[in-house]
């Protein structure tokens, strides 16, 4: 059968997964009576909840007697390394661009990778149904982007398809159509079939799956030769060493699932069960004459966080896995498949330094562990500092902000305070389009301030650019926090009395401990307060009584917001039931001592 291998790439939220759903639908993967639901491709719980793709996925459909292998990729910048890897399975890409937003930082990154791999691009200008979209301008911007990225003459001649993934149509012009067949036809016409080179077996493992029944599954495209069930093979490792192994079972992709098969030929994407030890990047090669493919480079981490066992007074109350042994084993298991992640032991056997690609990358790991029943504690995220040519360097990113005109001054102020430099200023419809270069440090905590300053109107995206010389001190959180003095249950009475001191993060009745961060102080400096004390009796007033009704609802932070909020002397306690922020030193006297010491040192 004829084969086409395509990857769908785009900036976050430009509609990749919605389009893959529509491709599946159009090619009748669903029986008519099957309930499809929205975004069946985002199958993981966290993906469903957040509406983002975290792991790339393979599906396969048949259209006009051609098998089209489709790879859905994540659009968030933290997962860029994953996209880069799975592009190795594709011969062509669908570059989706939002018809209003136009090319964004991640569009540039993924397109650059695709062009470097010589893949054949098809541009899809998506979300044409949006009322204020500007498909023609966006088309021009995309052409310019191709040009800046040194696309070849042939790549510059990219075909363009317009449409709405959401409404389920695609067309060669911006006029609505009944379905997405113009896109499918375009794929058959413009993406070449995989080129099968002459020679012995070569399949680079670019992805990995896991099944409780089958164990670890290696996924990749066969570049040369073919693979059969039970075939003995050599695994060529990244360091050039060889491992003899055998293929137990072999699968190709079919619809949303996998189909067991006895032989797969060059050009197709397949999944292999039975390889003993492998990592992503290894080549499955001929048993007698193994030849490896060039190793895959993985983006280096830009951020680190200290993971420790939970040391709060509430230790062990909610978690199943709480010891340093549990924590270590879990982290070691994670690095097998989470390529951009690194784990280092520290001098302390209860703590590990975990390196990742950004706040989202690390928070997904923490959230997953929490749901599995782990209890842990993490410190403030730190950017990675490197010596380059004798200079102290830190990660810098491109930050793009689209904001209504009246707010642009505020945005520029905010970003400049954090050592960002304005580089591009354009109008985009009735929005102002701003591009900055900013140290990654300056981005931490920026989002919430930006949303407050722009009444929630700013749309921002950023992407790692390079390590550049250290930019000096960046102001951290301005306000101090409200810290609980005692352990016990917070009373409505005392919260009510202290409301003028700040905004609370806890509800009346909530169990808290001394040293826990229970609110934000209205001014700089921390304030230790006692909200456990209280007229127990008055607290029994019927809910809904006047005093109760006056309490402002608590400010609820997500895990990522907590990660961006805490300072160096604070950490986050994470359990299956709760996420709490705390002072590293729970005792007020201990904190005072350290502060005195620091003042003395600063003065000396
Ligand atoms: N108006 C409109 N909205 C769309 C269209 N396509 C997708 N969306 C919406 O855009 C949002 C993001 O869509 P997804 O398909 O999850 O985007 P994605 O590119 O897979 O996002 P990531 O995987 O997180 O990078 C969802 O709310 C969709 O409903 C479209 O053609 N028109
Ligand atoms: Mg997606």
Topology:
Layout: E1 2-10, H1 16-26, H2 45-50, E2 57-63, E3 66-72, H3 80-86, E4 92-98, H4 105-116, E5 120-126, H5 135-148, H6 153-156, E6 160-164, E7 169-171, H7 181-190, E8 202-204, E9 207-211, E10 215-224, E11 226-228, E12 232-236, E13 242-246, E14 249-254, E15 257-260, E16 263-265, E17 269-273, E18 283-286, E19 303-308, H8 324-337, E20 342-345, E21 351-356, H9 359-372, E22 376-379, E23 382-383, E24 386-388, E25 391-404, H10 408-417, E26 421-428, E27 431-439, H11 440-443, H12 446-453, E28 459-469, E29 481-484, E30 488-489, H13 492-497, E31 502-504, E32 511-512, E33 516-521, E34 527-529, H14 546-549, H15 559-565, E35 570-574, E36 579-583, H16 588-603
Parallel strand pairs: 1-3, 1-4, 4-5, 5-6, 29-34
Antiparallel strand pairs: 2-3, 6-7, 8-10, 8-18, 9-10, 10-17, 11-16, 12-13, 12-18, 14-15, 14-17, 19-21, 19-22, 19-23, 20-21, 22-35, 24-25, 25-27, 25-28, 26-27, 29-33, 30-32, 31-33, 33-36, 35-36
Helix pairs in contact: 9-15, 10-12
Bound molecule kinds, no repeats: guanosine-5'-triphosphate, magnesium ion
The count of DSSP E runs of length 2 or more, i.e. the number of strands, is 36
CATH architectural category of the largest domain: 3-Layer(aba) Sandwich
Structurally, how many domains make up the residues?
Answer: 4
Q: How many helices?
A: 16
Beta-strand portion reads 25-35%
Helix content: 10-25%
The geometry reads as: globular
Structural class: alpha+beta
């Amino acid at each position: 059968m004829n084969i086409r291998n395509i990857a769908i790439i785009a900036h976050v939220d430009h509609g990749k997964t919605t389009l893959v759903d529509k491709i599946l639908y159009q090619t009748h993967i669903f029986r008519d009576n099957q309930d499809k639901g929205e975004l069946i491709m985002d199958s993981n719980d966290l993906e469903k909840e957040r509406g983002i793709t975290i792991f790339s996925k393979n599906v396969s459909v048949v259209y006009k007697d051609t098998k089209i292998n489709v790879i859905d990729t994540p659009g968030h910048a933290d997962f860029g390394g994953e996209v880069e890897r799975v592009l190795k399975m594709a011969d062509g890409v669908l570059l989706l661009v939002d018809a209003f937003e136009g090319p964004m930082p991640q569009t540039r990154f993924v397109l650059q990778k695709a062009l470097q791999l010589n893949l054949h691009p098809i541009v899809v200008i998506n979300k044409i149904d949006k009322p204020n979209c500007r498909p023609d301008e966006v088309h021009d911007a995309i052409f310019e982007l191709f040009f800046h990225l040194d696309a070849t003459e042939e790549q510059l001649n990219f075909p363009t398809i317009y449409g709405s993934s959401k409404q389920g149509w695609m067309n060669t012009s911006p006029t609505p159509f009944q379905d997405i067949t113009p896109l499918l036809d375009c794929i058959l016409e413009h993406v070449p079939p995989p080129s099968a080179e002459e020679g012995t077996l070569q399949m680079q493992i670019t992805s990995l799956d896991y099944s409780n029944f089958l164990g670890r599954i290696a996924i990749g495209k066969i570049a040369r030769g073919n693979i059969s069930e039970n075939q003995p093979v050599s695994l060529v490792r990244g360091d050039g060493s060889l491992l003899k192994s055998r293929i137990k079972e072999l699968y190709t992709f079919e619809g949303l699932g996998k189909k067991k098969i006895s032989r797969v030929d060059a050009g197709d994407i397949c999944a292999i069960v039975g390889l003993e030890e492998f990592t992503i990047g290894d080549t499955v090669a001929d048993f007698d004459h193994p030849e490896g493919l060039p190793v895959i480079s993985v983006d280096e981490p830009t951020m680190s966080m200290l993971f420790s066992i939970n040391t709060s007074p509430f230790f062990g109350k909610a978690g199943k896995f709480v010891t340093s042994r549990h924590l270590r084993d879990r982290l070691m298991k994670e690095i097998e498949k989470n390529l951009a992640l690194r784990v280092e032991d520290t001098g302390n056997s209860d703590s590990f330094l975990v390196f990742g690609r950004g706040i989202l990358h690390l928070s997904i790991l923490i959230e997953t562990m929490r749901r599995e029943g782990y209890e842990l504690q993490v410190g403030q995220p730190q950017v990675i500092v490197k010596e380059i040519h004798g200079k102290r360097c830190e990660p810098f990113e491109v930050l793009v902000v689209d904001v209504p005109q009246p707010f642009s001054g505020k945005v520029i102020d905010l970003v400049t305070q954090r050592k960002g430099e304005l580089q591009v200023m354009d109008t985009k419809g009735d929005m102002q389009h701003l591009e900055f270069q900013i140290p990654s440090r300056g981005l931490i905590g920026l989002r919430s301030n930006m949303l407050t300053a722009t009444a929630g109107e700013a749309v921002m995206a950023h992407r790692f650019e390079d390590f550049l010389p250290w930019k000096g001190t960046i102001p951290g959180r301005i306000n101090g926090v409200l810290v609980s003095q005692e352990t016990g249950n917070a009373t409505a009475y005392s919260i009510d009395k202290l409301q003028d001191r700040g905004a609370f993060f806890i509800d009346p009745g909530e169990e808290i401990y001394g040293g826990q961060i229970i609110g934000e102080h209205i001014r700089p400096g921390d304030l230790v307060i006692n909200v456990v004390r209280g007229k127990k009796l008055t607290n029994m007033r019927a809910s809904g009584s006047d005093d109760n009704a006056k309490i402002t609802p608590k400010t609820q932070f997500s895990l990522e917001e907590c990660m961006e909020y805490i300072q160096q002397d604070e950490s986050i306690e994470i359990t299956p039931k709760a996420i709490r922020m705390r002072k590293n030193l729970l005792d007020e006297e201990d904190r005072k001592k350290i502060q005195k010491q620091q003042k003395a040192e600063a003065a000396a």
